[in-house]
Amino acid sequence: MKLGLVIDLDTCVGCHACATACKQWNTSGTIGPLADSEPYGKDPSGTWLNRVRTYEVGDSPDSKTVHMPMSCLHCEDAACVTVCPTGASYKRVEDGIVLVDQDQCMGCNLCAWACPYGARELDQQQGTMKKCTLCIDRIYDEQLPEAERQPACVLTCPTKSRLFGDFDDPQSEVSVAVRERGGQDLMPELGYQPTNKYLPPRNPKVVAKMERRSVVGLLSSWVNKVILR
Ligand code: SF4
Ligand code: SF4
Ligand code: SF4
Question: Is the CB of residue 69 less than 8 Å from the CB of residue 19?
């Protein structure tokens, strides 16, 4: 099995419901709490497993606002796993989910530096690394109705812009969406082979202006600038 997400950049409205639902579920779940500092103060900070960034793509009057949710992409060749000195970061053989063993993590931050997508955040209060688990404590919970065995972000998205499933199954919802809509990897040139895929915006004028570069490719370069510190 190869579990992951498909995110539709055409229909995402940037409402942040996915990020909030993620934080709520994971604060009370297996890797929580996700710390916050000064949440209502002038300089709030906190640990999030999913963040939504917003870009303006193309030139006026054909420009388009694109919202780009980003969490761990559960890479096939995960840089975060390669660099981890304690073995705390690992990729599960049975379903491809990348996790951090909270008991083995020493909070050295190497994995966060290695991840090109900015998908990991050090919990400043606990001193351990946090990241998306695909809500592993929901998706395998047989006490939940089958329809609810999905990541919190997928369940909550009001525009159904997020799909979850098995990329190894050619008939799964995620595989069909990637085939039919041209799902793309984020920054494929890096070679980490992310599992999660993005569906590009449909606006034909904007896509035409991109010439040889894909919309996601262009977003990638922006994301690259924004995230790499
Ligand atoms: S909940 Fe859905 S529409 Fe809202 S930001 Fe997340 S992916 Fe986009
Ligand atoms: S997105 Fe980053 S944290 Fe997730 S598997 Fe890839 S390298 Fe690791
Ligand atoms: S912060 Fe934790 S998970 Fe990341 S590299 Fe260091 S020990 Fe490994």
Answer: yes
Atom of ligand 3 at shortest distance to CA of 109?
Answer: 1
Burial track 57-94 (b if 16+ CB lie within 10 A, e otherwise): bbeeeeebebbbbbbbbbbeebbbbeebeeebbbbeee
Model confidence at 227, pLDDT cuts 50, 70, 90, reads very low
Q: Is 69 in the pocket of ligand 1 (CB under 6 A)?
A: yes
Domains held by the chain: number: 1
Mean pLDDT to the nearest integer, 109-124: 95
What is the domain range of residue 201? 3-227
Distance, in Å, from the CA atom of 151 to the CA atom of 199, rounded to the nearest integer, reads: 19
CA of 102 to the centre of ligand 3 (A): 9
CATH at residue 201: 3.30.70.20
